[in-house]
Write a structure and sequence with these properties.
The chain is α+β, with helices and mostly antiparallel strands. It has one domain. It has seven helices and ten strands. Strands 3, 5, 6, 7, 9 and 10 form a six-stranded mixed sheet that branches. A four-stranded antiparallel sheet has the order 2-1-4-8, with no helix packed on it. A hairpin with a 2-residue loop joins strand 1 and strand 2. Helix 1 crosses helix 3. The longest helix has 18 residues. The two termini are 29 Å apart. The protein binds zinc ion. The site of zinc ion (ZN) has 6 residues, from helix 3.
Length: 228
Amino acid sequence: MSPHLSALVIDELAAGLPSADAAAHLATCTECQQRLAAVKQASATISAMPAFQQRLDAVTLGEPARRGPWLRLVSIALPVAAALALVVFWPRGDDVLLKGAPTVELIANEKPVMVAKPGDRVTLAVGGAGATHAIVFGVDASGTVTKLWPAGGEAAPIAPGARVSLDVSFEVTPGDLVLLGFFTKTTQPTEPIREAIERSVAGARAPLEVLAPSGFGAVARSRLKVTP
Ligand SMILES: [Zn+2]
């Protein structure tokens, strides 16, 4: 059987873009069928959230802190994702349709990891979809925001490609993890992004709802489900 479909291809299919190769694989792979179904459902769920559109600038505007409810949102969303557990969603502008969407993925054995166990080793990969610089943050189940890449305080250059390894590896720890990749065509400091994510989490938004701050073209989001 051909390799499983990438998160990028799954999202393109969810967005309605035709692909004969992907269709051939999908016809025979229940795992990818389930991944596609979950991405469609997650996208529909997030897009249907009240005031989703009005939140386009909310990350940079900030809001009074309110703790808690996003954790509940995540736990409600999990059964949807349970069969596959990597949920990817991004906005679909013309830019995305023309160049493909940016991606952020955890990789093991050269394949995207959707479900992992504590102690597993994974590496980080991104696809910039035309952007030249990236920053990747992780948000754990307690809402703690950790910069995963780069080590420095500025967005770092990325090579072109749909799945470019960032040459950092991680040991999976208990608790689901949301990955947020921010993509830009200029260098940008990382700390304002961290603060925007922390404001978003404190403002009771699910981490998957964090939107691109000004200066960033796109955000890629994915979720790693960690099973005991
Ligand atoms: Zn497959």
